[in-house]
Write a structure and sequence with these properties.
The protein is mainly beta. The chain contains seven helices and 24 strands. The N and C termini lie far apart (67 Å).
Length: 481
């Protein structure tokens, strides 16, 4: 109250630091300035004309743009009403990118004709009753941005390995230290920023992470490969999401790939990628471990297999995105570990200290709960266990870096049998011979058999570090263990 002028109200909106002030209303009679985190675009139903000659609506053009933006369908043979800039462009996609990257004003609409791109800071919201000029051969689009809400759901991340969003503006996220293993802290910092951080990226080489001003909605082609970087996009998941709680990311996303020939269920006309992910999470007739979402046909294909169990079937597909479920329980991954000497994971997500040996490090990976641990390395000199959510399946040759004295292990989950029944007749080979000069495969369990137990009553392994698997007060837990 007691605000003397509209200019003072504008200044208060610009200086507001408790929330992003997107608009204000100045009542000159009451000398009152009302600030809001919303505007006529985020709350169109609340915007009214004729509120009174004494009330001015003020929309802040200096605040951060809303993160979830896309473009309307093309309107042909019309152009912008108010032209603010002209640029050379050969395609509508180029013109769309120029509108995204405009810095001198907030680009709300554009039109493309021949080799010219016409940008405008106005649209049908700022000029609701103005007829668009006719322009034969022109293509017109408007930008539509929303502020994400997740009523009844949960914000979590998709991870895209070895990618970055090339058109995004980035700002450093303030880390508490420069110690390697920053993924969980980066995710928390972005989550705390709410809608102002729609996505973040991690530079694993420099151990830095950045908040991004946009996500891939409406700009999927801008997600491009970059070795040593991971892109994390904030998404809202609803429905059967219990297993995703407390996970850093819910799905691994791979643009332009699909799992060929292992569709257990196909759902047609799925509006978007996140709905496809929710169908995978809620599937009850089989364990859905991955999904393919076709951006053109809108088909969502669910599968009990993954790119790790069927690597030869993981194929390029221009219009498809591969989605791998990361909300499964760790005990569902009963894969053996393969060893590589003198290496460690490049995509290092966290470090566990005071680990005694590689067996203890393996346990840390196998039972890690914040995300699915795909690989680990034990650094004996420092008693450190390096944990990673990536492996050679997700990062290819870039997954490993050379480091003498460190042993690298990653899960080997390839399904070598066509059905479960084939494994039931396999007998463990306990008499494998080893001739001079040969070394046995460095794995944690049999690859061509099935793990079974020997029981030794009345004994314990005194040098083993115990790790509680299960407990129940009234006993009878052998089967569960």
């Amino acid at each position: 109250n007691s605000i003397e002028s509209r200019g003072e109200c504008e200044r208060l909106c610009l200086l507001e630091d408790e929330f992003p002030c997107r608009s204000a209303e100045f009542d000159s009679d009451a000398r009152r300035c009302t600030l809001s985190r919303d505007d006529r675009r985020t709350q169109p139903e609340a915007f009214r004309y004729g509120a009174g000659n004494n009330v001015d609506y003020i929309e802040n053009q200096c605040t951060k743009p809303l993160p979830d933006c896309s473009y309307t369908s093309s309107k042909k043979d019309v152009t912008v009403v108010a032209m603010d800039d002209i640029l050379y462009s050969r395609t509508v996609q180029d013109c769309e990118r120029f509108c995204d990257d405009a810095r001198a004003f907030n680009c709300r609409s554009f039109s493309q004709k021949d080799d010219r791109c016409y940008l405008s800071g106005d649209d049908s919201i700022t000029l609701p009753d103005t007829k668009q000029p006719d322009e034969p051969g022109a293509v017109y689009k408007e930008k539509v941005c929303t502020r994400s809400t997740c009523d009844g759901g949960m914000f979590i991340y998709e991870k895209t390995t070895s990618h970055f969003l090339r058109t995004a503006r980035q700002e450093n996220l303030p880390l508490s230290s420069n110690t390697p293993g920053i993924t969980k802290e980066c995710a928390r910092l972005c989550r705390d920023q709410g809608a102002d951080c729609p996505a973040f990226s991690i530079d694993y080489n420099g151990q830095r992470c950045f908040t991004l001003d946009r996500n891939t909605q409406g700009r999927g082609d801008d997600l491009v490969e970059r070795d040593g970087s991971n892109y994390f996009e904030k998404i809202c998941l609803r429905g059967k999401i219990e297993n995703c709680r407390d996970k850093v990311w819910a799905f691994e996303r791979v643009p332009g790939r699909k799992l060929e020939g292992f569709d257990d269920k196909i759902i047609d006309q799925v509006p978007n990628r996140r709905d496809c992910e929710e169908f995978c999470l809620s599937e009850s007739s089989f364990p859905c471990l991955s999904a393919d979402y076709n951006l053109v046909t809108l088909a969502c294909s669910l599968s009990r297999e993954t790119r790790r169990t069927q690597p030869d079937s993981f194929q390029p597909s221009r219009d498809t995105e591969y989605l791998e479920n990361s909300c499964i329980a760790t005990e569902q991954l009963s894969c053996p570990y393969k060893r590589t000497d003198n290496a460690y994971p490049r995509y290092l997500d966290t470090i566990v200290s005071r680990v005694t040996d590689d067996i203890a490090c393996e346990k840390q990976c196998t039972f890690y709960e914040d995300f699915l641990c795909r690989s680990f390395a034990f650094y004996a000199s420092a008693s450190q266990c390096f944990i990673s959510g990536d492996d050679t399946a997700s990062a290819q040759d870039g997954a490993l870096q050379s480091r003498p004295g460190t042993d690298y292990f990653e899960r080997s989950c390839e399904n070598i049998f066509s059905s479960v029944e084939e494994t039931e007749n396999i007998i463990l080979d306990t008499e494998t011979e080893q001739t001079a000069g040969q070394t046995l495969p460095q794995e944690r369990r049999c690859t061509f058999g099935r793990l079974e137990y020997e029981k030794t009553t009345g004994y314990e392994l005194i040098r083993a570090k115990p790790y509680r698997l299960y407990s129940r007060r009234d006993g009878g837990i052998t089967g569960e263990c």
